[in-house]
Amino acid sequence: MADKFDVIVIGAGPGGYVAAIRAAQLGLKTACVEKWQDKQGKVAHGGTCLNVGCIPSKALLETTHKFVEARDDFDELGIVGGDVSMDVKKMMARKDKIVKNLTGGISGLFKANGVTAIDGTGQVTGNKQVEVTDFDGKKTTYEADSIVVAAGSVPVEIPPTPMTEDLIVDSTGALEFQETPERLGVIGAGVIGLELGSVWNRLGSEVTVLEAMDTFLPMVDGTIAKETLKLLKKQGMDIRLGAKVSGSEVKDKEVVVKYEDADGEQEQTFDKLIVCVGRKPYTEGVIAEGVEVELDERGFVTVDDQCRTSVPGVYAIGDCVRGPMLAHKASDEGIMVADIIAGQKAEMNYDAIPSVIYIAPELAWVGITEQEAKDQGFEVKTGTFPFAASGRAMANNATEGSAKVIADADTDRVLGVHIVGQHAGEMIAQGVIAMEFGSSAEDLALTCYAHPTMSEAVHEAALAVDGHAIHMA
Ligand code: FAD
Ligand code: NAI
User: Fold this and answer.
1) 81: confidence class by pLDDT, cuts 50, 70, 90
2) Which spans in 203-319 are helix H?
3) Fewest CB atoms within 10 Å of the CB: 1, 142, 213, 355?
4) How many percent of the chain have pLDDT more than 70?
5) Which ligand places an atom closest to the C-alpha of 189?
6) Cα–Cα distances in Å, from 192 out to 65, 186, 198, 261, 438?
7) Contact present, 59 and 66 (Cβ < 8 Å)
8) Interval between CA 171 and ligand 2 midpoint (Å)
9) Best CA proximity match to 19, nearest among 307, 320, 338, 297
């Protein structure tokens, strides 16, 4: 038997690494096991988010957004430049550098906080035991009073479009294209499809998104989702709803996708195809046979509201448990669980987790939609304010989109805030704080907002809940 720890965390993504650092900061002897290896075979901390998720995708989104601004908007602003063009390889190299800096940064934070990093594949072999298999196949068993499973998730594959080396790819493959595909197919108009579809659309790909459902982004308020769809279509994204993919055929350097929509059988040829139809928990083999940590039929570890599994002392957090698959949700669960292990009281408010889709303009929301509120029996009042009526939005050349506040007509409590507009991802924090503090729409309306800011749209939307927006006829 090797070292004994107070806490062993399996997985160093935003759930696991945050749990490990917090536990160490609270004085617990903590280890974190990670098996992710970079292209050089070195262990890379940070999980999906830092290696192939949030961070690299945002690096590409930001670069391509700046490119489009320089190409399409500078002239209108009076900025005189030459023709702009994109060096895709340089963009990718910058993205790789950011990933390397950040993943190395986590290893640095482990050292600084006294977290023992263990390289290899971890398995829970008992309620107080973790077996780690290193990259040479050597097994070591560690003991811990508490274990946190933070194994994350992987992309879902579908039978009609099996992955190929570089033609039919998942999100990880789509972050590695070294040149802009002429015709890009995307299966799934979800978060990844819209973000990565936007990246390549901005660089000139002809992007077709095939979405099985008839409703576009059903988790977003209907008014805001409709406006977003219109904006994306205006940017040239061909988003086809109600398109059910039935098969694909790889021909030389092309892929032919067959699908069925309201008009019958269709087929379309692409140079690259990204399959992004959701992610699934990555829990296979993480729990040894005979250990009674319960998994559900989809492979998620079953947990209570405070991330306790069915075995005392074993917790699970992040993408491998119920709830939205988001980095900040994983990290907050990591903090909650570390606090609980250290004997503190901790809980999370799952009703106030923000979501952001980093398209341009950004789409962000927290809480429920107007329709969901009605379905839940609330009498609802709403206020909407278009950025077209905002002075700062005009100055920013960013008048597209709107902000909407949804409130309970009886109590005036804020039930949801949904925004499509420049910096919506930053602005949504106001809605999160309002909901976290149980604010009314009037609280937002009576709050002093700096002028001129994009955030004033949220203020005006809150004023509009009672029909009194100032800058709208
Ligand atoms: P992960 O980040 O998946 O980390 C799990 C870690 O556990 C991995 O490093 C894995 O190697 C390790 N592991 C698994 N099993 C074992 C084992 N047996 N032994 C040792 N180690 C193991 N979310 C956002 O909030 N914002 C975004 O902008 C965003 N963008 C995204 C873009 C893309 C393209 C993708 C794919 C995802 C994005 N996400 C985003 C989602 C986000 O990446 C995940 O929600 C987040 O990474 C989940 O964190 P986690 O710690 O639960 O799991
Ligand atoms: P998703 O769940 O967001 O979207 C998948 C879409 O694919 C859905 O609209 C679904 O209806 C559709 N679909 C499913 N099967 C299909 C089929 N056979 N044919 C056509 N369409 C089909 O999943 P996605 O985009 O893969 O992302 C996975 C998760 O990663 C997200 O749910 C999110 O939690 C996380 N993520 C978060 C980001 C962010 O916070 N900005 C960015 C990227 C990912």
Assistant:
1) confident
2) 222-234
3) 1
4) 100
5) 2
6) 16, 9, 10, 22, 31
7) no
8) 10
9) 338
Range 441-452 average pLDDT: 98
Assembly ipTM: 0.99
Can you tell me the mean pLDDT for 431-443? 98
Measured CA distances, 126 to 288, 363, 440 (Å) = 8, 44, 48
Say what angle helices 16-25 and 88-113 make with each other, to 10 degrees: 30
Nearest CA-CA partner of 63 in 177, 206, 186, 199? 199
For 346-380, how does the pLDDT look when each residue is reduced to its tens digit (9 = 90+)? 999 999 999 999 999 999 999 999 999 999 999 99
Of the residues 45, 451, 459, 468, only one is catalytic, namely 451
Residue of 239, 260, 275, 279 with the most ligand 2 atoms within 8 Å of its CB, for mutation = 279
**Which residue's CA is the nearest one to ligand 1's atom 9?**
47
With the most atoms of ligand 2 within 8 angstroms of its CB, the residue from 175, 186, 191, 279 to mutate is: 191
pLDDT at 437: 97
Going by CA atoms, what residue is nearest to atom 14 of ligand 1? Answer: 151
22 CB-near residues (< 8 Å, 6+ apart): 334, 335, 338, 339
**Cα four-point dihedral sign 49, 278, 224, 184:** positive
**Atom number in ligand 2 closest to CA 188:** 7
Tell me which ligand sits closest to the C-alpha of residue 331: 1
Q: How far is the CA of 29 from the centre of ligand 1 (A)?
A: 24
Cα(47) to centroid(ligand 2), Å: 18
Active-site residue, 65 included: no
Closest listed residue to residue 353, CA positions, set 339, 336, 340, 376: 336
pTM for this predicted structure: 0.98
Q: Is 327 in the pocket of ligand 1 (CB under 6 A)?
A: yes
Stretch 25-46: mean pLDDT, rounded?
97
Neighbour-count burial of 101, counting CB atoms closer than 10 A to its CB (0-12 exposed, 13-18 middle, 19+ buried) = exposed
The residue to mutate among 45, 48, 123, 300, having the most atoms of ligand 1 within 8 angstroms of its beta carbon, is 48
Instruction: Tell me the pLDDT tens digit for each residue of 39-72.
Output: 899 999 999 999 999 999 999 999 999 999 999 9
Determine the pLDDT at residue 82: 83
The secondary structure of residue 301, as a DSSP letter, is B
326 in contact with ligand 2, CB cutoff 6 A? yes
Residue that is written with structure tokens 């992610």 in the block? 279
Q: Which helix (H) or strand (E) holds 3?
A: none
Q: What pLDDT digit, counting tens, does each position of 110-143 carry?
A: 999 999 999 999 999 987 999 999 999 999 999 9
At residue 178, φ and ψ (nearest 5 deg) are -100, -5
Ligand 2, atom nearest to 213 Cα: 11
